[in-house]
Amino acid sequence: MKKTIFIFTVLLLARLLFPVTDLQLGARPQAMGGAYTALSGDANSVYWNPAGLAGSKHGEFQFMHWMIPDVDHIIVDYLAFSYPVSAGALGFAWVREGATLEEGINADETSMSENQLYFSYGLELVKGLSAGASLKRFTISSDIGDGSGFGFDAGVLYQPFEAHKWTVAATGKNLLADMKDEMIKPSYNFGTSYSVAFSENMHNITVALDLSTKEDINETEGVTVKFATGLEYAFLYSDYSFALRGGLNSNAATAGFGIGWNYLAFDYAIVLMNEDTIGDSHKFGIVWKFRQSVSE
């Protein structure tokens, strides 16, 4: 019976929680629809594209909690950290996904959790071209057994024109990854973004587009292609910042905002699903930038 419940739990996570090619972690990336492969310079690069770490100006810490009102037994939390060094930048992330189910008259409880650890590095190879990689450690814990595995991500990011903030990027995720001696299908993301600032850099508009591919999603044979697009307007004044965000992807419409003061910021995203899966959800994020910048 417990094995049956555990398998059901795994299927629930795989089919309902992860209907796209990958989790979309971070409140800001999620609010922009998950179009984040070509955006760089913050701790979210550890998860989305380690090449983006090369653009880090400050050390940064991020925390995100995913709240799913209609499915209260699923938990997803995310921590990310980045820090520029003399050549490039280092990054670390921890992702915890968990589910608990109750079954039977006695409400017997079965739980399962997965942890992912990322150790990342990004470096600018030549002017405008950056590359990065992440070593990943997977672990699964459950009432009937445990498992673990390794994999890695790799990415590139290119800004062809120094005067214009146009970026193109690509990542390969879960490359040569395994879990409990079974290979995990890799996914490939391709993204582009463009940012324009005006009024003495007080106003900034960013648009982004991602395409992602993966084989055999949800037992569907062949390669599935997903899209994501996002828009952000940011207002910066002295030590204060405010941003409005919106996005659209193959499974959901998204929206959100960010409020910042000095080196602390709060981000929020809402995900409006267009499929009958886990229902709408909310992501809350805290960002803390270290006061010392790499140039100071």
Summarize the structure.
This protein has 296 residues and is mainly beta.
Mean pLDDT: 83
How is the quaternary structure best described? single chain
The radius of gyration computed from the alpha-carbon positions, rounded to a whole number of angstroms, is 19 Å
Helix content: under 10%
Q: What class would the helix/strand composition place it in?
A: mainly beta
Q: Report the count of strand segments.
A: 16
Walk me through this protein's architecture.
- With 296 residues, the protein is mostly beta strands.
- It has a single domain, classed as Outer membrane protein transport protein (OMPP1/FadL/TodX) (Porin, Beta Barrel), CATH 2.40.160.
- 8% of the residues lie in helices and 61% in strands.
- The protein is built from 3 helices and 16 strands.
- It has a 14-stranded antiparallel β-barrel with strand order 1-2-3-4-5-6-7-10-11-12-13-14-15-16.
- Strand 1 and strand 2 (74-84) form a beta hairpin.
- It is globular, with a radius of gyration of 19 Å.
- The relative contact order is 0.20.
- The model is unreliable at 1-21 (pLDDT under 50).
Features:
296 residues; mainly beta; Porin; 14-stranded antiparallel barrel; two-stranded antiparallel ribbon; 8% helix; 61% strand; disordered N terminus
